[in-house]
Amino acid sequence: QVHLVESGGGLAQPGGSLRVSCAAWGFTFSWYNMSWVRQAPGKGPEWVSSINTDGWITKYADSVKGRFVISRDNDKKTLYLDMYGLEPEDTGLYYCARLKGNDARGEFDYRGQGTQVTVSS
Prior knowledge:
This protein is mainly beta. Helices cover 0% and strands 50% of the residues. The chain contains no helices and eleven strands. The chain has strands spanning 3-7, 10-12, 18-25, 34-39, 45-51, 58-60, 68-73, 78-83, 92-99, 108-111, 115-119. Strands 2, 4, 5, 6, 9, 10 and 11 form a seven-stranded mixed beta sheet that branches. The chain starts with a strand and ends with a strand.
């Protein structure tokens, strides 16, 4: 059974930084492309970033490009998102998702419950 569990969210000040993590088990983590998606209060899901199986190819939404860094450790079966220069607009529930194919913004078949990130002074 596939499990994805996020951690590391919390409160940050504008301009600050946070790292969120996603622990995966129940499947061969290194075989799958992975994504981070966020959902702000009252809004629909927004794709944030994706990474390919070996971590060499990364994609970012324009809203986070240059500020966020996605990475993965296949030995630890963990996905990361390092967030810098945080803005209030980055507030939301961040969840990791397992992509079904090679499209960075494509459909996913499993997702975690998410971790809350709040950016406020």
